[in-house]
Here is the input.
Amino acid sequence: MDPLVLGIESTCDETGVALVRGRDLLGESVASSMDEHARFGGIVPEVASRAHLEEMLPTLDAALASAGVSLADVDAIAVASGPGLVGSLTVGVAAAKALAVALGRPLYGVNHVVGHIAVDELIHGPFPDRFLALVVSGGHSSLLMVEDIAASVVELGQTLDDAAGEAFDKVGRLLGLPYPGGPHVDRLARGGNPEAIAFPRGLSTPKDLVRHPYDFSFSGLKTAVARYVEACEDGGRDVPREDVAASFAAAVADVLMTKTIRACRELGIQTLVIGGGFSANSQLRELAASRCAEEGIDVRIPPIRYCTDNGAMIAALGSAALRAGLPRSDLGFGVDSALPLDRAVA
Ligand code: KG4
Ligand code: ZN
Here is the structure.
């Protein structure tokens, strides 16, 4: 029988704990402190750390109960050791180290952003030998070439400025929507015309495509949206919020998918996995489905509840690390707010 892996996630505002055996999710629990941050218009790190401290053991108990197992059954522990907020990460890593020592079980510090891709194995089954991963979250927009999710990940490109989720959150603020703006902009965009306003596609000129074939840039687009909104307000016109949201969302999805499909073609890749909080975005999901169908690419995107931060993705990556035969992390490992994506295990 495959080992039972306990996964702990505490990189930002979600406290997540899950139990995975092989590629099967046995049980999980997630608590979020987002309600406590919303009124500040952004995550307050100290508030998030304190919430993790309060939620960690109740979430652990709830996850064990939902899986119908006890701590004594756990064979290995995985914890997100980065990227993320240092204080938040520290709470999860300290809890995981304490459990590893108390239970005498190996501990794996794993990369939370890579986990956003790893979780898809729990949903759609084993990965092929070679695939591309587009990981899009509040902090990352990266294109990865993956041969083994735990042992061989190469970053082909990334955003040079804002991440896709970050750009959505900023446009949400411009349109007067609550924090985090991403899901609100998504909802507003569904009622608008995506072709109403011709917003720019960053790093897409022929020259850019030579220098930055697989990199992204969203800050110029965000500025274009800000200028458009300002021009409406200065001219005393109502801002067509739905059309702005729809045209903006279409520009983000278009750039992400155009570059990703290009990479699949150039590298001869048949399978694309999309993950991360921003992969909950409906405009991206729709465009990915239609463009990949046209190209004959198999696209895998986890259901929305496994796109945002959760413990299952950390347990899934821990399980993949065990399968790949990687050594356990030395118990002296720290947290790394900028852990590189080619390091799946600390
Ligand atoms: O991966 P995640 O949960 O946290 C990070 O690790 O960053 O991603 C959160 C990001 C936020 O920027 C949030 O606004 C965005 O994902 N997001 C969305 C949607 N759902 C979450 N953005 C656009 N449309 C959505 N439906
Ligand atoms: Zn995340």
Remarks:
- Strands lie at 4-9, 14-21, 24-32, 76-82, 107-111, 131-136, 141-148, 152-158, 271-275, 298-300.
- The pocket of KG4 (ligand 1) is lined by residues 12, 137-139, 165-166, 168-169, 180, 182-183, 186, 276-278, 280-281, 308-309 (CB under 6 Å).
